[in-house]
Amino acid sequence: MATSAPAAGVVDVARGRCYSSAVFALKARVRNGRLLVDEPTELPEGTVVDLVAVDDDQDDLDEEERAALHAALVEGLAQDDAGDTVDADDVIAHLRARAS
Known about the structure:
Radius of gyration: 17 Å
Structural class: alpha+beta
Order of helices and strands: EEHH
Helix content: 25-40%
Oligomer: single chain
Number of domains: 2
Strand content: 5-15%
């Protein structure tokens, strides 16, 4: 799916790899009481998209913590790109086995 490139210094989690291949980010602005989305997409006509308002002051991370978070996200995406991953079903099965 096409999405715009992330701004400098912003981690590109829009690829959706953190959660699902169906998750990606779009930006929208409110204009005259309507949401205006001006982002390229390959979604089929009529696709319903849920928008969630983002509060930029939503967390308590300081600059050092935010930098560490972004570094961890970049590292995780690089590991995913390299195929250095573990299937979620395997992790869940392992945790369930440990718990019993």
